[in-house]
Design goal:
Number of strands: 19
Helix content: 25-40%
Structural class: alpha+beta
Number of helices: 8
CATH topology of the largest domain: Jelly Rolls
Largest sheet: 14 strands, mixed
Order of helices and strands: HHHHHEEEEEEEEEEEEEEHEHEEHEE
Number of domains: 3
CATH architecture of the largest domain: Sandwich
Length: 354
């Protein structure tokens, strides 16, 4: 990789403007070239925010010399002009300062012990609430949002477990931060859905209108940043398996965590259908080529039941459907009508599928 391109990618990375494809390009460069990896780690250390471009240029030279000394046989000379280096170094310093402020600011604000105000739903329950700042929140089953007493005055920090749809009251001077597992969503005023249950291997953020900024793995030095546009869904999968990856999606593997980032389109133009990601807030269950065991997990929360699958072959099926019923037996019969064969029996709160 040419030197100027490498520094351009670092600049984009630190200024939070890097695209998924550019992130893949940068990850590949630092994975396959030891010298670039060493340089990347050195230039992105928070302590470097206190030095100027000339000092950083000197550090760059020392880093490369040390690297060449360790690996004389495979060394490559990173050719970059002094002017180009200073140009990108200056941008990098600004990016490092911004990242440091964001990192320490967000990390300190999300001390769970400070989140004394809670709104919860149980299995089979859904709520629509209005927060002190005027934000409307729909809570799906088995979900919790927590916030501080100072919410809406000094901060708009929310901790989310489960699933919630937000219509955020606009406040340019006081952005809202929603923390859900490895996801942190920054928003000023917009509508979006976040799903992050502790018993599921993925977390999702789906934007309906406006814009959001999404931090992934925020408490680590290799945190990622994405800007999301209306109609996009960002999924973070924790077991390297992408279920139902859309043809128009882009993926990027986070190097230091066992995750995959998936970007896809969930809102389609000229379509009157309510997408699965937000249908739940209208009391509808919508599945779009979803794995059978994922559907079962949603049904357990929706109907407050326990479901055991005795036939593992059923987990290989992906199903689609639009269902509205107060009785889970009706939903299971509809699932059977899609062409897969199974039987079930219900005893009190336990359903066995075989």
């Amino acid at each position: 990789m040419q030197g100027e391109r490498f520094f351009e990618l670092i600049h984009l990375y630190l200024s939070k403007k890097i695209s998924v494809k550019e992130q893949v390009e940068l990850d590949s460069a630092i994975t396959n070239d030891e010298k670039l990896s060493v340089l990347f780690k050195e230039l992105t250390k928070p302590k470097n925010m206190i030095v100027g471009p000339l000092e950083l240029e000197e550090k760059f030279g020392k880093t490369m010399n040390a690297t060449r000394g360790r690996d004389e046989v495979n060394r490559t000379v990173l050719k970059i002009s002094r002017n180009a280096f200073l140009k990108y170094a200056a941008a990098i310093l600004i990016g490092i300062f911004t990242c440091s402020v964001l990192y320490y600011g967000i990390s300190n604000s999300y001390n769970v012990d400070n989140f004394s105000q809670k709104i919860e739903t149980k299995n089979g329950e859904r709520k629509n609430v209005t927060l002190p700042d005027g934000t409307h929140v729909w809570l799906n089953s088995a979900s919790t949002i927590a916030f501080k007493k100072s919410f809406g005055k000094e901060n708009r920090d929310i901790s989310l477990t489960g699933e919630a749809y937000f219509e955020v009251s606009k406040n340019q001077n006081l952005p809202m931060y929603i923390n859900a597992k490895e996801l942190t969503v920054k928003v000023v005023g917009t509508s979006f859905n976040v799903r992050s249950y502790p018993d599921e291997n993925r977390a999702e953020a789906s934007l309906v209108e406006g814009k959001i900024e999404l931090f992934i793995n925020k408490d680590q030095k290799d945190s990622k940043f994405l800007q999301v546009i209306p109609g996009e869904k960002i999924s973070v999968n924790y077991d390297k398996k992408l279920n139902n990856q859309p043809k128009n999606s882009e993926t990027s593997k986070i190097p230091t965590k066992d995750m995959i980032i998936q970007k896809s389109i969930f809102l389609k133009n000229n379509s009157s259908d309510v997408p699965a990601e937000i249908a739940w807030k209208e009391n509808k269950l919508v599945f779009d080529k979803e794995p059978f065991d994922n559907i079962i997990s949603k049904l357990e929360k929706w109907y407050d039941v326990q479901i055991e699958i005795k036939n593992d072959s059923l987990k290989q099926h992906n199903l689609s459907g639009n269902m509205e019923s107060d009785h889970i037996e009706d939903v299971l019969e509809l699932l059977k009508s899609t062409g897969i064969e199974f039987k079930f029996k219900k005893e009190n709160n336990l359903i066995t599928i075989y």
